Amino acid sequence: MMGSIRQRLGRAVFNWSLRRSPRLKKLTLSQRRIYIVPSRSGFVFLLLLLIMLVLGINFQNNLMFAVTFLLASLFIVTILHTYANLSGLTIQFVRGHGCFLGEQAAFDLLLTAQGQRQYESIQLRLHQHSGCAVDLLDDRQRNLTLYQTPDRRGVFQPNALLIESYYPLGLFRAWTWVQTDLNALIYPRPVAGGQLTDLRAIDSTNPFPGQQSERLGGEEFAGLEPYQPGMPLRRVAWKQFARGQGMHVKHYVELNDERRWLSWALWPELDTEARLSRLTWWVLQLHARGDDYGLMLPGCTISPAQGEAHRLRVLEALACFGLQAGASDATGLPVDEVDTSGASEVEDKANPSTLSHIQRQRSAQESGL
Fold first, then answer.
1. pTM
2. With helix as H, strand as E and coil as C, how does the chain read?
3. Cis previous bond, 304, omega within 30
């Protein structure tokens, strides 16, 4: 019964605190944001003061009165020191780091002290997750990273940030809840499977037929070249020779597409998440091999390329697939061709804020390359 009442009361205070804290990229703690109440040790301390006061009154002991009032003064002064240990502290939300589903997403913060003040034993943690304790003594600024495990792919926003302190005596708890203005892009969980030969672009639907390699000995006419002794006479261009244009031979090649294509049509026996996981795994494999690879999803096609920036673009498309309307425009990806024939396969839900989230995430990641 009491546990249920405490949970409801704590949830109500939590929601009320968040309503008073809009999402900001940078904020400074003040009296409007800091809440302070006695801790458990503080309530025990108050109980002891009450007992000492009753005993002093009962026995008319002046020394006991003096000790009681001295400790009560210390209790009151502790309120100011506990509040001052958070007041003026500036929190700046720097960036979030993308990760794969199942891993911990990292979020960078910057703490800045006010003037020459010192801050000790400040505890920070994301709601319902472990955190860390920091001190701002000699350094005016402190970088720290908090972690949270996402439960879904796509654009992920961490839980509210709890900042609290029991300094100096542990008799009071000063705290505040802050809504984090951070996000991280969560990629599908990579799962191994499939064969490398499945990724060849061998069908006629290849949207980039010009990007092919040539190999001698094929049946595709590629032009004329000057005749050299020893070349077979059956390849001599006799019409050009009869016109007095010199002796040339016909040059034939075999067109061969060496690029890899990560297509949604591969492995149709898998469901959506399993397909995305397998495609993600092959993105990592092909990137490690240094191969050129492209991506074909319903409504989104990314031309073959290689490099870290290309890997991020492909992973972004996989992470946001089916989460917003049109992967070609909602993700902000440089899409080379949009295929609307597969639009009926996925029912997208538009999210107007997704574009700005992903663009900030990609620009932050590419700036750190």
1. 0.69
2. CHHHHHHHHHHHHHHHHHHCCCCECEEECCCCCCEEEECHHHHHHHHHHHHHHHHHHHHCCHHHHHHHHHHHHHHHHHHHHHHHCCCCCEEEEEEEECEECCCCEEEEEEEECCCCCCEEEEEEEECCCCEEEEEECCCCEEEEEEEECCCCCEEECCCCEEEEECCCCCCEEEEEEECECCCEEEECCCCCCCCHHHHECCCCCCCCCCCCEEEEEEEEEEEEEECCCCCCHHHECHHHHHCCCCCEEEEEEEEECCCEEEECCCCCCCCHHHHHHHHHHHHHHHHHHCCCEEEEECCEEEEEECCHHHHHHHHHHHHCCCCCCCHHHHCCCCCCECCHHHHHHCCCCCCCCHHHHHHHHHHHHHHCC
3. no
Question: Mind listing the pLDDT tens digit for each residue in 290-321?
Answer: 888 999 999 889 999 989 999 999 999 999 99
Higher pLDDT, 178 or 245: 178
Q: For the beta carbon of residue 316, count every other beta carbon within 10 angstroms.
A: 25
How confident is the model over 18-50, as pLDDT tens digits?
Answer: 777 778 888 899 888 899 999 999 999 999 999
**Rounded-to-integer distance, Cα 52 and Cα 77, Å:** 19
Burial class of residue 365 in the structure, from the number of CB atoms within 10 Å of its CB (0-12 exposed, 13-18 middle, 19+ buried): buried
Residue 258 confidence class, pLDDT cut points 50, 70, 90: low
Length in residues, the chain: 369
Amino acid at 96: G
What pLDDT does residue 340 have?
A: 33
Strand order in the sheet with 172-178: 35-38, 172-178, 161-165, 119-126, 131-136
Question: For residues 251 and 274, what is the distance between their CA atoms, to the nearest angstrom?
Answer: 47
Q: Distance from first CA to last CA of the chain, Å, rounded?
A: 54
CB-based contacts of 302, cutoff 8 Å, min separation 6: 294, 295, 296, 310, 313, 314, 317, 333, 334, 335, 336
Give the mean pLDDT of 274-303.
91
Closest CA to 29 of 138, 114, 140, 123: 114
